Amino acid sequence: MNIRRHLMKIKWAKTIGTGMLVAAMVAVLSACGQSKSTDNASGQSGQAEKEPTVLSFMTTWSETDPFTGVYYKNAMAFQEANPDIKLDIETIPYNDYPVKLSTTAAAGKLPDLILMIDGSATFQQIARSGALMPIDDMMGHWKEDFLPSSKIQEYNVDGKQYGIPGEISYTTVIYYNKKILRDAGYTEFPKTYEAFKAMVKDLKSKKITPISYGNKVGTVVQASLLSPVNERISGSGLYEEIKSGKQKFTDPEFMSALKEVKELSDLGAFNVDLNSIDNVQATNLFLSGNSAMYVDGSWGAKQISKDKSPDFELGFAMFPEFEGGKGSLSTTIGSTNQGVSLSAKLDDAKKAAAEKFLQFMYSKESYQNIMRDGNMVPANVEAPADVNPLFKEMINEFAGVKEVIPPFNIVMPANVTTVAKNGLQGLTTPGGSAPEAVAEELQKELGQ
């Protein structure tokens, strides 16, 4: 018997007199003899279930994608834990996503939730158009000691936060063969650039290729060599100063970095075919023992750990400091990615649901899942016990990083990075471009 309905009937009966009360009581008592199934059906009709809040979500995440599968699984865990919220997911192939994002935004048809793969110029343009909702009023969920603002700044536009990144990709990790370095007399990796350069010279004199590089696409040297050299010499603000006109590519600070790249090339630091092979081929050179070091992003660790032989002794190092330079080991080059932005058109109910989604997706537990998948994260989260030991070693190497700044090829306009691609490939080719010529071409292309 439905007690709630029974009490409602008694209350109603008191308002219409004793005679009706008796009749109502008889009716109620008769109803008590009915089957439980009838009562249950009656109760359900009086308590209609609340419809879930539906959030449309455009993303590249998919269960089978080796790069984003962990995010999809985290999203499904959110869905299971929050049955009052439904995710209506539209999955776009990664290579098609930039065009889809741009055209959808231009048409004014952005969904409720939008994956912003990184803090690119497209993301910034959409944010400045007013199509996205700032989440500054939600940021109290993430304390500074858990999620430092210096590590999420790529999703901040003009002082407003429009998303939280899921991971950090450090563009400069020096992977090294511990045995080769040990046999050459180095029991620890050099702490300064001068000591690093001396080691390069020494390795070359011993007929060992110091560093394998795969710069066929042209952006690898920009991101993993030019950018850290610039930071270690000039600090973190050089590229913005060049873009604003306060400095030039032809000024001494940027020129110093180009000269260092040229000097490394002239020392024979790299494989001679670095500009004609890709990362996969360069990795194979390193893992086969044909170079002492390999420079690439943190994303390479997962595959290197899988492909290396059991007896291969793998080490990780940050790019060393320049003595007297303005840079610091507490800063490194990288980009943050896998952030979710909100449509500016969300009503209060959808905004509340979206806030719960962000809290879940960028929680300690979710970040630890991302780490288990072999990715670095912007949050100060302890690596779970079941993380790959080699990956944990790399995490420890970068534990002191306080600030992440984007590389040259992310900060600069596309036309400038194209000129840099050609210039740096010339700079690292024997008898190729001179640093002064590369700087002049870059300044000309920037149009200042």
Automatic annotation (TrEMBL):
Provide this UniProt record's keywords sorted from A to Z. Answer: Cell membrane, Lipoprotein, Membrane, Palmitate, Signal
Source domain of life: Bacteria
Q: Where is the signal peptide?
A: 1-33
Family matches, as Pfam families:
SBP_bac_8 (PF13416)
- Listed InterPro entries: Bact_solute-bd_prot1, SBP
Name by which UniProt lists this protein:
Extracellular solute-binding protein
Q: Which organism is it from?
A: Paenibacillus rhizophilus
